[in-house]
Design goal:
The structure is a homodimer. Chain A is mainly α. Chain A has three domains: about 1-150, MgtE N-terminal domain-like (MgtE N-terminal fold, Alpha Horseshoe), CATH 1.25.60.10; about 165-275, CBS-domain (Roll), CATH 3.10.580; about 300-465, Orthogonal Bundle (Tetracycline Repressor, domain 2), CATH 1.10.357.20. In chain A, about 65% of the residues lie in helices and about 5% in strands. In chain A, the strands form two sheets. Chain A has a three-stranded mixed beta sheet. A three-stranded mixed beta sheet of chain A has the order 4-5-6. The longest helix of chain A has about 30 residues, at about 370-400. Chain A is globular. The interface between A and B is large, with 153 and 153 residues.
């Protein structure tokens, strides 16, 4: 089997058989050899090692080097860097790579790229770098890229490629095949023939499979798919990805404000967006800057993480102010200081569980008007039952530990209150943020843990000072 | 534009223009009308409302009903439930729906489905339900489904469809097109013609676009794509999704242990897997059962969340034991009880930031042997710098609040120690779990916060009792 599979497919095949530390072994050996070739400034060996590899894997290797190695690497390997590799390179180090590439290599590489990849490459560059790359393109490609850049960031217009295969609606299968055979230029990958009317409004599409399986005299119009739908160039890329996933689209025509065909989005682009959006959601939930990457420097990392830690500090101080109110109580019953973090921690965790489920359900549009109250009710019941369960457990633990029935009762009641509130905060805060147009993934966590800390400390210490003193 | 777009595509188009609370308005109205039709047991209206909708949207609506509505709905609408709707229905309520469908509807629906969708539908059913559905299939479909079920759960073999379009390697374009035109049965969607040798070993593939653009006498062999790679039927589905995403595959042939073609996986299946894996990662990071869904009942929800809260309770008690050691210290300087949660909370948050980035990097295979020490070093430096920054801030806050220089010094030092440890725990614990074959997303959070709680309390209270008493 190995002789048929390109070298870099090894992880799919290897990891299937057994998932252990040897997984990366072949990879690691290869990486070591690449590293040695760079150290020795041995371009020939480098070429030989990378030649069988997929552009995406070469890009990964470039990303994982340190900057010093990368500099040498780019010098040795520049001639081989093509559009495919370039479009795979992570945003984090893209500017660094572009700067170090000889101008003619860069110009050659961008000329090979599809318009959507060029847009992706240059949209974050500064004006002069952008102009330089645009200048390297053919007139028609440049026009396509500029048209795309005219749409808002993160819109379907930025995501689409302008290379589209269309046919007039009145053509037959035979005419279409003859046209395709004679056409000099066709996109690398395409999955549909888009039917357009004379004013370039898309009115249907035919899958290539359907085209191939039909008789030459069949009219295209009769082969058009039910699944046909157009996407506005102004649609948000996240919504585009959702539509592809929800409706199992493979490609979809993009139209401008006048409903004219301006490009096409293919599923691999939608898949990348889905991947990025998920990534961002996870990072946001953890209070990490959404652009953070493993290639970031210390300064970039600090810039992403400090603000959220600062917010957390503020909320932690707020919770401490609650504790400060009960200083005398704690001084008299020091067991309270020992037990109070347990109440807060349980609330924080229960709240995080609920909010994560809620944030995901909102992101996947499965929490809607029709089921929201049912879900809120479920969370409230679950919160109370969790609270009762852990009230019992902690009551027993506190009784055994500190030999006090009242203390056990106090922590039990505080646990019920805090886990109940945690559940409500966990569902209502994301819903509220969504309602006011904020991103629930970004801010919910801080709000929810603030609520559970404050309520946890207040319920526990407040009850204690009422009951125990 | 609206007249051309199916009703259910509204979210892509609407949400693009403005993201506000009106987004779901058209949807909500429709849902209300569906609800009324169910209440009134008005099957005709229900049919009329759902007729223009995509199967995926109908499935969503079924998922979002409460069980009572769903029961009535299924009675009224059973005749319209087809294979497409059935394959879109979420696992969480699938069994409930299957049970309520008339047997002949179910049999008819599964006969329409692709083999991979049937496998997905029945793999979690019990033996007798499974047998019933298998019995409804044609012999050849049943054989395909059983072959698929023979592969391990979550393997490529389960994910593939057995419907494959192949051609002998020696065929020309013309022969292939003639074959396709005469073939009675072709899959709904296919993107490649897979070239096989006489023993059914796949040796290349030709995209349909390439086929359409080539002359009739061109040999298929000359049109085969470089990107060709096979996937082992035993490969894990997560690795398959990774390969599709990494190498921009559209479809890939699946081979058995003898390298013979047994099926094909298409990108939409890979996209669903990617989506599910992300979902699971997010839920695992939050300590929520990975199978949790918004349709779960109270009991299912409790079953998923209680175990993790139990683990959290154990670690919270462990942290409290550390506090208990310093009871006398706290009694003498009660300000310590007020400030100690701040140290622990900052450590927990900083640790969670680091671990989330690490877990994601491991999941996307971007944290590898070649950059691991660089990343660990970066995290350690970031942790120390964060620690110094917040030591300064909290030192000043503590000094102003409690008017004590020593107390300010103690909390500052504790902050540096805890944020430094948090960073190391945040990166080393996921790496360690990955090394021993555990899922870093599942367990890292608990370990990391335990470390930061224990270290935070110990550093702060230990230093305090040494310095302040």
């Amino acid at each position: 089997m190995d002789d048929k599979i390109p070298e870099n497919a090894d992880q799919v095949v290897d990891q299937a058989s057994e998932r252990d530390e040897d997984d990366f072994q072949p990879r690691r050996e290869l990486l070591a050899r690449i590293h040695f070739a760079i150290e020795a400034e041995d371009g020939a060996t480098l070429n030989a090692l990378l030649d069988p590899m997929h552009a995406a894997d070469i890009a990964d290797i470039i990303e994982n080097m340190d900057s010093a190695d990368r500099r040498v690497f780019l010098r040795l390997y520049a001639g081989e860097i093509d559009g495919e590799i370039l479009s795979e390179i992570d945003e984090g180090i893209r500017e660094e790579v572009l700067e170090q590439l000889p101008r003619e290599v860069l110009a050659e590489a961008v000329r090979e790229m599809d318009s959507d990849d060029v847009v992706d490459l240059i949209e974050d560059l500064d004006e002069s770098d952008r102009a330089e790359i645009l200048a390297a393109l053919d007139d028609s490609d440049r026009a396509a890229v500029q048209q795309s850049l005219a749409y808002p960031e993160y819109s379907a217009g930025r995501l689409m490629q302008s290379e589209v295969v269309t046919a007039p609606e009145h053509w037959t299968v035979g005419e279409t095949i003859d046209f395709l055979r004679n056409e000099e230029w066709l996109p690398e990958q395409f999955y549909h023939i888009i039917l357009v009317d004379p004013r370039r409004h898309p009115i249907g599409y035919v899958t290539l499979g359907r085209l191939l399986a039909s008789r030459r005299d069949a009219p295209l119009r009769d082969l058009s798919e039910d699944s046909f739908r157009t996407i506005s160039a102004y649609a948000e890329e996240g919504d585009v990805a959702y539509a592809f996933n929800q409706y199992h689209l493979i490609s979809a025509p993009v139209v401008d404000g006048d409903d004219r065909l301006v490009g096409v989005i293919t599923i691999d682009d939608a898949m990348s967006v889905l991947d990025e959006e998920h990534e961002e959601d996870i990072l946001r939930l953890a209070g990490v800057g959404e652009d953070s990457a493993i290639t970031d420097t210390v300064v970039e990392t600090l810039r992403q993480r400090l603000p959220w830690l600062m917010v957390n500090l503020a909320t932690a101080i707020a919770a401490s102010l609650v504790i400060a109110v009960f200083e005398t109580t704690i001084q008299q019953v020091v067991a309270l200081a020992v037990l109070m973090p347990i109440v807060a921690s349980m609330g924080g965790n229960a709240g995080t569980q609920t909010l994560t489920v809620a944030v995901r359900a909102l992101a996947t549009k499965s929490l809607t008007g029709s089921n929201v109250w049912r879900v809120v009710r479920r969370e409230a019941i679950v919160g109370l039952l969790n609270g009762l369960a852990f009230a019992l457990v902690m009551g027993v633990v506190a009784y055994i530990w500190f030999d006090g029935v009242s203390l056990a009762a106090v922590i039990g009641i505080a646990m019920v209150v805090n886990l109940g509130i945690a559940a409500l905060a966990g569902i209502l805060i994301p819903l509220g943020l969504e309602k006011v147009g904020a991103d629930p993934a970004l801010a919910s966590g801080t709000f929810v843990t603030t609520v559970t800390d404050v309520v946890g400390f207040f319920a526990f210490l407040g009850l204690a000072s009422a009951v125990l003193l």
